[in-house]
User: What shape does this take?
Amino acid sequence: MLKGCMRTPTGKDAPTVPEKRMFCMGTIINDFTINIATANGTGSQSANLILLQSLFEMGVPVSGKNLFPSNISGLPTWYIVRLSDKGYQAPGDRTHIQVLVNPATWDEDLAALEPGSVVIWNSDTKGMTVERDDVVSYPVPMSTLARKINPKIAKLVTNIIYVGVLAELLGIDQTCLEAAVSKQFKGKASAVELNITALGLGREHCREELTKEDPYAVEAREVKKPQFFIEGNEAAALGAHYGGVQLLAWYPITPSSSLAEGIINYIPRLRTDDDGKATMAVIQAEDELAAAGMVLGAGWAGGRGMTATSGPGISLMQEFIGLAYFAEVPSVFWDVTRVGPSTGLPTRTQQSDIAMLYEGSHGDTQHIVLIPGTVEECFEFGWRAFDYAERFQTPVFGMSDLDLGMNRWACGGFTYPDVPMDRGKVVREQDVFDAFETFGRYLDVDGDGIPYRTLPGSGMAPILYRGTGHNPMGVYSEKPEDYYNLMQRLRMKIDGARDALPAPVLREEAECEVGIVFLGSMENSIQEIDDILEETGLKVSQCRVRALPFHSEVESFIRRHETVIVLEINRDGQLYGILRRELPNDLVTKVHSVAYSDGMPPRARIYAERIKATLEEVKQ
Assistant: This one.
């Protein structure tokens, strides 16, 4: 048994690497997937996070995917834990170890397993059994064991029992396991004691009643740099604080609520004065439209306002989004995307809001969209969004998704802002205002499409913003030339932002003819996709888009490759469509689409196979 944790979330020195366990021939170490099938509202999430954290504490590269239903409790939920020394974080192609606790999906989950899979199942589940003779079966009386600890909460304790069984079967270090329990139930000594006792019962039962017949095991890995787990939503919330957010106006909606809640939770630590009073405002609005209006009010007044929502919320905010664009009001909107249309699949993931964010609201619009692919970028774009909003006097969108936003990801730390806030062209002093030969709210005096603005209460006019037709002075106008010139200036302003926004992440192979363009959380599957393709002799270059409008490097990347395939998690190839509209005609025929969405985080093999099929079609 391994002794000592390999990774500490606090960044303290980790214990020395313990002696390795002895593994028999054919043992599969740190390269398998566990699928845990339970019911929502039974406390399984805490148990699953303890399992994930304990592996993380050992230094094992691991990721977790929470597939939960859209109701409060009772419906099926799955948690996928993938261990991969190569660092793969997609769900994987198959389940190697299946934990069966929920009778509602028992037969379906069992039938989906490949021969040779491992099944750990609650033998106390009435009417359910495992009758396949081509799997490794480990029956465990989880409910009976849980009742020994506390009959009143046996349903909750059952989940910890299977974690104990897994820990014994796989060789998870007990010290790391207990550290994970303490982290999960921080400050609750009785809960920590209860759960450690339950883990012990699971381990003891496994030791005494089960004979290990499967090849799967874990082995600690040395971690050179301290890391911690964090969700993308929490990282974006921290970024917003470091960006100086002054108003959060929001209406709860999955999967964005934890971003708003993260901002709120950090206020006592980061945003209070010497008297303990908050230095920012939080308003839970009556609906999404009201929240958007409040954000615009903050921007008009010179404050940094934002909201966090998802696709349906963005749909409701369209009128205010158009106002912010046309009246040029700095504002920040975070869209943590889920599956649409309509209510869709509220607790599944997708990249289906790209076109809506980029061209949101009626009429001719074009918006700045920041697209993080890692938790580090969620933090960075969380603060940069405010700088861009004020610099370009326009709404700025952060586009994350449920997978990145609500799952935990390994993080080595954040790069904090090392430059002053970019407040843009704001006239704050009277002598500066008086120096203008002519001052107009929408007058472009230096040719970059961005006018100067004044703030309410400064004593300097004008502070009027118009959502109706207007001339450069801000005066109402329906003259054709005024409208035409205004719309051309707005387009020039946003177009001029291209190379000021985050450049794409490029990973290029020398003399490689095939390029892959992708965005967002596809980052967490791209290396595995690349490896699968390379196994078949195909090498590809990669370009991860991090912002719209496209940085000039995206066009240059496409120009350097004979064939370019756009990967995205939606049905219609929205990013592909935008590229085709904006690329020069000589590049359009180079670009092809691989768009796929079923609500699940991207599985590498599905995309790899579609890339190969597309390339075959191109050759023909």
About this structure: The first strand starts at residue 28 and ends at 29. The CA atoms of residues 225 and 412 lie 7 Å apart.
